[in-house]
Amino acid sequence: MLLNLSLGAILFISGAVLFLFPPKKINAFYGYRTYSSMKNEWTWKTANRYGSQLMMIFGSILLFIAATTGHFATTAVSTIISFLLINILIEKKLKKM
Description:
mainly alpha
């Protein structure tokens, strides 16, 4: 049960840290780093701001799933799906820009 809750908590806390302390400049160490997000400062800031919000939302959803189901397999699959959706949603937003 603790491991299940940890997955959602880690995602939520990571999103909160990224939201409160966004990377100032494009770098290869901290932030949402993909080719499209690192094109310029505008896409970098947008990807990191939007990504941090999505991480907190999906982290909360994972916490809820872990608390209600208690099954590790369900939580693990939900975590993988969450990471895929976060990436897809950020990239989709960047392509619209």
